[in-house]
Design a protein that fits this description.
With 265 residues, the protein is an alpha+beta fold. It has eight helices and ten strands. β9 and β10 form a beta hairpin.
């Protein structure tokens, strides 16, 4: 087992996709990260040997070595996931794949209750690209390119002048009603496959598109876009020229799970 609480393990954790992205967020945007503990499990024996130490790490992802293309996400059932079964699925997909377990330091909501899923793409010194999906969706859709409900493009030189009053002037796309219905159906079908109730999802996810609330955009302006100018030199020195912060909202804040740079394959 590799644990972020053991400093000597961190260089080894950084050798895995998704785990590296999560550590990046914790390093460069510590006030945004919803993650405060993380461990990597290599295989079934590793899990069984360390199971008693992992009771607090209830969130699950999968990863693989950064020298390879990032493996596909292994779907996880929402209700009582069987960790050993998940490890078997990971190994079936990639023999070098690992289980990433982590703890969230914020109250979590159901996947259909969140205000938005958002990816903030940053081309350092050039532009900021925001793709977002609305209520009932999350970062999965924008990160995987499944769909986008709203898109914004902000020139780097506008960082100082952008504010919540003029934010909408940077909007480049809003999904049509017909296209939204298609994405809603696909989202519901996916969440049903994760063990959620179709009836509950039908009631919770808006039937017509509702734009992302202003307070979410205010949070992103304050905690990501405005600080970028001050952190530009540090990010450049660390090699972050093209990267994105992606994830979903919890309550009234954007809580990105990962910071992936252009080196991710």
């Amino acid at each position: 087992m590799l644990s972020i609480k053991n400093e000597k393990d961190i260089p080894h954790i950084l050798k895995y996709h998704r785990a590296k992205d999560m550590v990046n967020i914790m390093t460069f945007f510590p006030d945004l990260s919803p993650i405060d503990d993380l461990a990597i499990i290599i295989d079934e024996d590793d899990y069984l040997k360390n199971k008693d130490k992992l009771t607090n790490l209830t969130s699950i992802r999968n990863g693989n070595p950064v020298q390879e293309h990032c493996m596909k996400s292994i779907p996880v059932k929402e209700i009582n996931p069987n960790v050993l079964d998940i490890i078997k699925e990971i190994k079936k997909e990639n023999s070098k794949g690992v289980l990433i377990l982590f703890h969230l330091n914020v109250p979590t909501t159901e996947r259909y209750e969140r205000y938005a899923g958002i990816s903030v793409g940053i081309s350092l010194g050039k532009k900021i690209y925001i793709d977002a999906v609305g209520k009932g969706f999350d970062g999965r859709e924008v990160l995987k390119g499944i769909c986008t409900h709203e898109r914004y493009i902000i020139p780097w030189n506008d960082i100082r002048k952008i504010n919540i009053e003029n934010f909408n002037s940077y909007n480049k796309f809003i999904i049509s009603d017909d296209e939204y219905v298609k994405t809603r159906t696909e989202r519901i079908n996916y969440l049903v496959s994760c063990g959620l109730s179709k009836e509950e999802l039908e009631n919770a996810i808006p039937k017509t598109y509702t734009r992302i609330p202003e307070f979410i955009w205010l949070d992103i302006l304050k905690n990501i876009i405005k600080p970028l100018e001050k952190e530009e030199d540090l990010l450049r020195d660390c090699g972050f020229l093209e990267f994105n912060l992606s994830g979903h909202t919890e309550e009234k804040r954007f809580r990105p799970w990962q910071m992936a740079d252009d080196k991710r394959m």
